[in-house]
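Sequence in, structure out.
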Amino acid sequence: MMTKNSIKVIAVLFLLSVQLFAQNEAEKVKSLFVYNFTRYIEWPQTDGTFYIGVLGSDQNLLAAFREMASKKSTPSMKIIVKQFSNPAEAEGYNLVYIPESNSRSLKQISGRTKTLVVTEKAGMTKYGSDINFVQHGGKIRFEMNKGSIDKTELKVSSQLMSLAIMV
């Protein structure tokens, strides 16, 4: 026989598992968005390898990006995802992803040529992020700062811009 306390514990555990599932799904969705960014932005000539740097140690986020890279890499384009901890280590990546928990590091990373900076905290495009994920109508959307992207010398397709919330 279940007591009120055991029902409460089960309910809390259920809610936590639903929240974790939703969070993991959100990270997977963001990683797929990032993959599509790689396809609709003109990048400088590379050796066929596309480097994504993820700032911080969020293992769920890294797992989502690595899963995307393993499924989306092709013989002509290999996607390599690396984790780094110090903003000074942001050199050499085609795309740098800054999770919300590390958004304070944006100023140290933004403004690099030929590197797209993607964030996930409200208002970050105003502070130098090129693309920022936001929740809009219960869905994950992305803002784009065209002025900031122009400074990177990357060319964004009009198709991608039409999907963005322009800031």
